[in-house]
Amino acid sequence: MSIKDNLQNILQELGAIQLVAVTKYAAPEQIQELLDCGYFVLGENKVQAAALKAEQYKQYPVQWHLLGHLQTNKAKQAVRIFEVIQSVDSEKVAAAIDKEAAKVNKCQKIFVQVNIGREPQKSGVAAELLADLLVYCRNLKNVQLLGLMAMAPDLPDKEQTKPYFKEMKELFDRYAAPYGLEFLSLGMSGDYPAAVQEGANMVRIGSKLFTGE
Ligand SMILES: *Cc1c(COP(=O)(O)O)cnc(C)c1O
Q: What are the Alanine racemase N-terminal domain coordinates in residue numbering (predicted)?
């Protein structure tokens, strides 16, 4: 199946749920094919790679989402490229974004990333520290806190990811109204059906879109 077919099938399946098309492993001709379909909400996990692609595809109205950990020394570049930074997981990162956004008169949209599986190799704030980080972000002038993001542990049986997504939905339901959160970004190619069933309203899909798997 072509990327166009994959895109149509995924969008139809998702309905009102937002899709971030993750281009980090896609070849240039694959990204071009997606852009030719008129799909412009794209995700990358590294600032450097996104900078190259943002330049390469600057004639398109791409909304870039940062999905990977942000080093504070890349905050300056990040606020110039990304529509949304989904991976804020510390006060330090949030403060660096706020400072650089102020310099360019931007209000940077951010999500807070939660390490819902408590996995040492993954980034994200621990669930019990989430409230403190939300308070901190809300008080920053040049960031707009808009959502929560998480990755479930990579389990062979995708049914087993559901408790993690459920826990994220509970956190979202608790904090959405008080903090004005709109997006719950959960689920990737392997586990997005489970994420959607548990209440995600944004998913991030790469390999299923570009390779069909
Ligand atoms: C790479 C990545 C994705 C997409 O992964 P696929 O398995 O290719 O769909 C989603 N979210 C994050 C945070 C990623 O780094």
A: 3-210
